[in-house]
Amino acid sequence: MSFINYASREINCKIVYYGPGLCGKTTNLQFIYQKTAPDAKGKMISLATETERTLFFDFLPLSLGEIRGFKTRFHLYTVPGQVFYDASRKLILKGVDGVVFVADSQEERIDANIESLENLRINLKEQGYDLDKLPYIIQYNKRDLPGTMTIEELRRELNQTNVPEFEACATTGEGVFETLKAVAKMILIDLKKGK
Amino acid sequence: MSNPQLVMYDEEFQEINEVIGRLLKEANAKVIFLVDKNGQLISGVGETERFDTTSLASLTAGNIAATGGLAKLIGEKEFSILFHEGEKDNLHISIVGGRVILVVLFDSRSSLGLVRLRVKKSSEELSTIFEKLMKKSEEREKRGSSEFPFAEITDDDIDNLFS
């Protein structure tokens, strides 16, 4: 849940990037980190293995500016995508305000996408959240690769609830900021409603 | 929701800072942080400018979450105290009132025994303040009090953030 500090006039929100292994969650954060002005970002932390696979989480704090005199900060986290890190994924979802599901558009990864999405629902439920009530969007990543499924096919498999969706190529940054903005906006609108 | 939203008001913020300020002196510590279990920094006293406090908060919460997971695996509710010993500096991490993490950084000018002793006393005071705080925000929520700064924001305000 977001943390509102009247004393220091700050609002902090937590966004989690979820998805199957090697779908590009860390790459999303790395691109955001590279393209953000130094005064608007903190240090990016990656708890990764020697082969640069996420072991626990990546963390990137961003400050977006002020709304009505309140500094608005977003803490971006990724989860480890590999199936056997499920215990760690559950921990990172604690206190989440918004979720980005990063899907791998390659045809051979569709089963991994579906499995990860089901896993997201189950893990959220365990923490007392309902994915359908959270600010939540889908990013179809790796659109630049050959052999990707069409958006219609991906939508049919992964977006039956019709949430906002974005096409992306995280290595070049296409769609990365659009995704972030969309989920941040949904979180702020939720806050506005006083949820 | 499993964890209600944490809201901090001026009054309690000052009370909290008084308690951890006193703890800093009594325990002869270098820095003290209070972190929400979700990884948000609540407050810090001492030589805070020497540290990347945001990262520290996030990693502390990750650490507590991971050890909490370990605790459950062996049938414990949680490990309420963690201690990390370094060559010069040490970290004493404890859970206060079930939802807030108290981090004390100290060196050879203090000792683990002293820190433990002082932390215990301060934890009780902090628990009381946080309980009061939770009640306060619950009551305000029930009353539907709309001092919440976001109630009146417009779509334009939100769009301006991204321009």
Characterize this entry briefly.
The complex is a heterodimer of chains A (195) and B (163). With 195 residues, chain A is α/β, with parallel strands linked by helices. Helix content of chain A is 31%, strand content 28%.
Strand-helix topology:
The complex is a heterodimer of chains A (about 200) and B (about 160).
Chain A: E1 3-5, E2 10-18, H1 25-35, E3 45-48, E4 54-67, E5 70-78, H2 86-92, E6 98-104, H3 110-126, E7 136-141, H4 151-158, E8 165-167, H5 176-192
Chain B: E1 6-8, H1 10-26, E2 31-36, E3 41-46, H2 53-73, E4 81-85, E5 90-96, E6 100-106, H3 112-143, H4 155-161
Question: What does it look like?
Answer:
- The complex is a heterodimer of chains A (195) and B (163).
- Chain A is of the alpha/beta class.
- Chain A contains five helices and eight strands.
- Chain A has helices spanning 25-35, 86-92, 110-126, 151-158, 176-192, and strands at 3-5, 10-18, 45-48, 54-67, 70-78, 98-104, 136-141, 165-167.
- In chain A, α4 (151-158) links the parallel β7 and β8.
- The longest helix of chain A has 17 residues, at 110-126.
- Chain A is globular.
- Chain B has 163 residues and is α+β, with helices and mostly antiparallel strands.
- Chain B has a single domain (10-161), classed as Dynein light chain 2a, cytoplasmic (Beta-Lactamase).
- Chain B contains four helices and six strands; from the N terminus they run βαββαβββαα.
- Chain B has a five-stranded antiparallel beta sheet, with helices on both faces.
- In chain B, α1 (10-26) packs antiparallel against α3 (112-143).
- The two termini of chain B are 33 Å apart.
- The model of chain B has no long low-confidence stretch (mean pLDDT 89).
- The A-B interface holds A 1-8, 11-12, 14, 42-43, 45, 47, 56-57, 59, 61, 64-65, 67-70, 72, 75, 87-88, 90-92, 94-95, 127-129, 181, 184-185, 188-189, 191-192, 194 and B 1-10, 13-14, 36-40, 42, 52, 54-55, 58-59, 62, 65-66, 68-69, 146, 148-153, 157-162.
